[in-house]
Every structure is written in C-alpha cells, then in structure tokens.
Amino acid sequence: MSWLDYFRGRRQEQPASASAAKERLQIVLAHERIGRTREDFLPKLQQDLVAVVARYVAIDPGKVNVNLDRGGDMSTLAIEIELPAPSAVRMVAGAR
Amino acid sequence: MAQVVVVTSGKGGVGKTTSSAAFATGLAQRGKKTVVIDFDVGLRNLDLIMGVERRVVFDIVNVISGEARLNQALIRDKRVDTLSILPASQTRDKDALTRDGVAKIIEELSKDFDYILCDSPAGIEKGALLALYFADQAVVVTNPEVSSVRDSDRILGVLQSRSKRAEEKKDPVKEHLLVTRFDPVRVERGEMLKLEDIQEILSIPLLGVIPESESVLKASNTGTPVILDAESMAGQAYADAVSRFLGEEKPHRFIEAEKKGLFKRLFGGRAA
Ligand SMILES: Nc1ncnc2c1ncn2[C@@H]1O[C@H](COP(=O)(O)OP(=O)(O)OP(=O)(O)O)[C@@H](O)[C@H]1O
Ligand SMILES: [Mg+2]
C-alpha cells in the first residue's frame, strides 16, 4: 500500500462498506421482525399455488422454483413452474 | 461421492462462518461443485456473510419437515456458479434439526456436489454435534488464545468419539488446523500464543494461518466472502489454504511481523 492509497483508502472505503452494512441489515431485519409476529406464509403460499396449478395441469412438484428478492420498498417473488409437454396438458384437461 | 467437511471450533466467534464462506467460495472457484450449509439454527448468519440474505425463501428446517424440496431451498450464488448455499432457519428451535433429516439431505446433496461444507454453531451441544456427525474431514478453526485452543482440543476429542466415522469404526475424520485472527505483531510481543505452540499442543496438520485483517469486516459489511477480495491478506491466506486442502504445496505467508518503515510507524498503518 503506497502512502497515497493510505489516505484514499481510509477516507472513502470504510464509510462506504459500513453504510452498505446498515442498508442490508435494515432490509433483512424489517422482514424478520414481521416474521416473528406471524407465521411465515411462503411455504403455505407455495403449496396453495402448486395445488391450484395442479388442478389444470399434471405438474412435477420437484420442478417448481421459488425465487425471492427482499427489498426495502418492494419485494419480488417469482414462482417458476415447469409445465409438461402440450400433449400431457390436453390429457388432463380432457379427463375433466 | 461428495466429501463432507465440517468447519468447527467449540468456542464461539473465532471465525467459523467467515472461514466456511471463504472456503466454500474458494473450492467453487476451482470448479468444485460446492454447497455450504448453515447449521446455526435460530442464529443464522451465513446468509449475511455470503450476501444472499434477501433471497432466502426456504431453509434446512423447511426441507426436513417436508415443506419444501431441497432444490427449492438451495440458493445459487450469483458470483461463482458452482456454489450453492443452504440457509439455517431463523425462527424454529434447534430440535427441528434431526439426525435422520440431515442424513437425507446430505445423501441427496452427495449426488450433485463434490464438497458439502457444514458451518457449525459454537459449543458442543446438539447443533454442533449434528454439524460434525457426517464429516469426512474437519477444519478446526482456532484463535491464538488459550480458551480457543482448549475448546479446539475438546472438539477434536468429540470428532474422534462421536462422529459417524468414529461410531462405525471407519477411518477417522481427517483433521486440519486453521488458525485465524492471527496477529504476528502481538505474537512477537509475547501477547499471543505462537503458531508452533498451538501446533505442538493440538498436533494436527496446519492447513492455514489467516491474519487478523480489517478486510474481513469490510467483506462482511458488503456480503462478499473475503476470499473474493484477492488484494487482501486474509483473502490470499484463505486462497492458499484452499490450495493446500486440494493437495498443493504452499508456503505459509503473513505469519511474520512486517518490519515497519518510519512512515508506517508514525501513522500506524494496519493490516489491509
Ligand atoms: N481474520 C479475521 N480478521 C479480523 N476479524 C475477523 C477475522 N475472522 C473473523 N473475524 C471477525 O470475528 C467475528 C466472528 O467471526 P465469525 O462470525 O466468522 O465467527 P464464528 O466462529 O462463526 O462465530 P459463532 O460461533 O458465533 O458462529 C466477526 O466479527 C468477524 O468479522
Ligand atoms: Mg458462525
């Protein structure tokens, strides 16, 4: 580390990483505190969604992917369900 | 078959989670398919150190209780694509982890991964016992300090008597010593245990020495395993340890006190 880096490093990097830490903590703790007062609904939500889809198509429960990104103002939940080939879909639909 | 590696210590706060994150990332960087499991149920932290806390949907307890499939609970790392994380539960109590449940998870993971790293909680109670039970290898994290060395000795005894390998009288768990938060200046001043002393007392092969380094705090602030900070001494020391783990010969670095120049002495330069 040269003496120039020494001054640059101290002044800039330290506050930058500490504020990243604060922001990350605020987001994750906001979600965890909510979770403490009520049951985590995600497992149930996923089961319900899969059950609804399964009424229409024969799906493999192993091919359901849940992706979450918790944010400060907004979170996104992406549920990816792999549907079988169209022929299989028609079979289930026809059987109803 | 995957190798199951427990990162353990007995004593709390010595650097298990920091080391698990660094080691898992390092193995994955070498192309090994690696999954790191947080066994600290109720006090999960690995997700923060790995920077995936916003993406946790399911955890190991959800998988054991059948609420989620294993592949749904695994979080794929966005930086190193051969790396996955299985988070601990933050809300359930420790009893939700059962030996049978963990056995099933490890068996299933063994099919897809080369290395399964288990980040143990502190202590020698249920959670720590479960984290080490299935281990083929153990990384024993030790600080140059009396209580840490004593606890490491204790956990070595547990590995030799209460692991699956011990119970089934198979080859013993392969043990590695990882000394962390090593401060050569304080060792030189006689304030901290010397490396040779720790090795003499514990007498297991030395895998690596990680210096006390400010970069570890910075890395945890941003959720980046410190091994990805290739400039930092701690990052380089972890990379060397991973190389040795994979069988390469590497001399130990950062174990001698740096001879300080006048400038650094005046301004008190510290380890980066
Ligand atoms: N090489 C290092 N240099 C400086 N600080 C370090 C180093 N290694 C770990 N630390 C710090 O030590 C503290 C404990 O680290 P860590 O959480 O990894 O320990 P742990 O053994 O997992 O703790 P616990 O027993 O609570 O699970 C953290 O604040 C971490 O930033
Ligand atoms: Mg820990």
From TrEMBL, chain A:
Region of interest called Disordered, as start-end residue ranges on this chain: 1-21
GO biological process terms on file: cell division
Pfam families xref list: MinE (PF03776)
UniProt entry keywords in alphabetical sequence: Cell cycle, Cell division
Protein function: Prevents the cell division inhibition by proteins MinC and MinD at internal division sites while permitting inhibition at polar sites. This ensures cell division at the proper site by restricting the formation of a division septum at the midpoint of the long axis of the cell.
HAMAP family reported in the protein's UniProt record: MinE
Recorded family membership: Belongs to the MinE family.
Protein name listed in UniProt: Cell division topological specificity factor
Species this chain originates from: Neoroseomonas terrae
UniProtKB/TrEMBL annotation, chain B:
Record SUPFAM superfamilies: P-loop containing nucleoside triphosphate hydrolases
Entry-linked CDD domains: MinD (cd02036)
Organism superkingdom: Bacteria
The keyword Nucleotide-binding is annotated on this UniProt entry: yes
Keywords, ordered alphabetically: ATP-binding, Cell cycle, Cell division, Nucleotide-binding, Septation
The CobQ/CobB/MinD/ParA nucleotide binding domain, residue ranges: 5-226
Family to which the UniProt record says this protein belongs: Belongs to the ParA family. MinD subfamily.
Assembly information from the UniProt record: Interacts with MinC and FtsZ.
Function comment: ATPase required for the correct placement of the division site. Cell division inhibitors MinC and MinD act in concert to form an inhibitor capable of blocking formation of the polar Z ring septums. Rapidly oscillates between the poles of the cell to destabilize FtsZ filaments that have formed before they mature into polar Z rings.
Name of the protein in its database record: Septum site-determining protein MinD
